């Protein structure tokens, strides 16, 4: 049976894409056939476009990837779509697509990377990544910052998941500094204690700059 995983951040810019790549690399290293799906990518237009997250994951890990929708402006998907006069698949559409991919049996794990945080709207009807995770029955991994503010943001994300009856699979610290300060060092211990959710992995800052072979080799060592 195909394993379904949703990766969400406590905020934008917390290292979610590199954490997704690390999860994919670890699974592939354990012999799983992995597909990473990005329901909606934003920020791909303009003079200085953002890289597609699935391209980053594919380059680092070599696993299969799929992007379902893309928008130019670096905004929440629903806002970017409204400003562009564009349509978006509904969260129910995304759920059906992910389920079909899982049921096809071509992959042992399908990892879905969200956009920003858990309650960011992925469609024009108010559907969120939380709705998607619930619809497909996925385990959810939370990517958090190392520094100040992360305890509050992570506990809010955990509370939102538990309110839907979803127990998070674990927390990943998305970018661990080379010289962590007191706040980061305390947070590393306090995140599992405050949330009751295990700390799955601590990814070193700059991991996304590693060459693919080095990334794949190192990724398993970042997990507890």
TrEMBL record:
GO terms for molecular function: dethiobiotin synthase activity. The active site is at 38. ATP binds at residues 13-18, 53, 113-116, 204-206. This is ATP-dependent dethiobiotin synthetase BioD. It is found in: Cytoplasm. Keywords: ATP-binding, Biotin biosynthesis, Cytoplasm, Ligase, Magnesium, Metal-binding, Nucleotide-binding. Homodimer. HAMAP family: BioD. It comes from Nocardioides ginsengisoli. Pathway: Cofactor biosynthesis; biotin biosynthesis; biotin from 7,8-diaminononanoate: step 1/2. Substrate binds at residue 42. The keyword Hydrolase does not apply. The keyword Metal-binding applies. Its cofactor is Mg(2+). Catalyzes a mechanistically unusual reaction, the ATP-dependent insertion of CO2 between the N7 and N8 nitrogen atoms of 7,8-diaminopelargonic acid (DAPA, also called 7,8-diammoniononanoate) to form a ureido ring. Belongs to the dethiobiotin synthetase family. Pfam families: AAA_26. It catalyses: (7R,8S)-7,8-diammoniononanoate + CO2 + ATP = (4R,5S)-dethiobiotin + ADP + phosphate + 3 H(+). Its EC number is 6.3.3.3.
């Amino acid at each position: 049976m195909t394993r379904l995983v949703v990766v969400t951040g406590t905020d934008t810019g917390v290292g979610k894409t590199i954490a997704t790549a690390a999860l994919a690399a670890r699974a592939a290293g354990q012999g799983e056939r992995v597909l990473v799906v990005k329901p909606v990518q934003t920020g791909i237009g303009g003079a200085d476009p953002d890289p597609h997250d699935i391209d980053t994951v594919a380059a680092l890990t070599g696993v299969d990837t799929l992007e379902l929708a893309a928008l130019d402006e670096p905004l929440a998907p629903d806002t970017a779509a409204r400003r562009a006069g564009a349509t978006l698949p509904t969260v129910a559409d995304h759920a059906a697509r992910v389920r079909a991919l899982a049921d096809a049996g071509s992959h042992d794990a399908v990892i879905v990377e969200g956009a920003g945080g858990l309650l960011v709207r992925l469609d024009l009807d108010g559907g969120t990544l939380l709705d998607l995770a619930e619809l497909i029955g996925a385990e959810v991994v939370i990517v958090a910052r190392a520094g100040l503010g992360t305890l509050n943001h992570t506990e809010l994300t955990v509370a939102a998941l538990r309110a839907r009856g979803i127990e998070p699979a674990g927390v990943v610290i998305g970018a661990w500094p080379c010289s962590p300060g007191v706040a980061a060092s305390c947070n590393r211990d306090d995140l599992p204690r405050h949330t009751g959710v295990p700390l799955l992995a601590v990814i070193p800052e700059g991991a996304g700059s590693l060459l693919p072979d080095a990334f794949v080799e190192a990724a398993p060592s970042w997990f507890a």
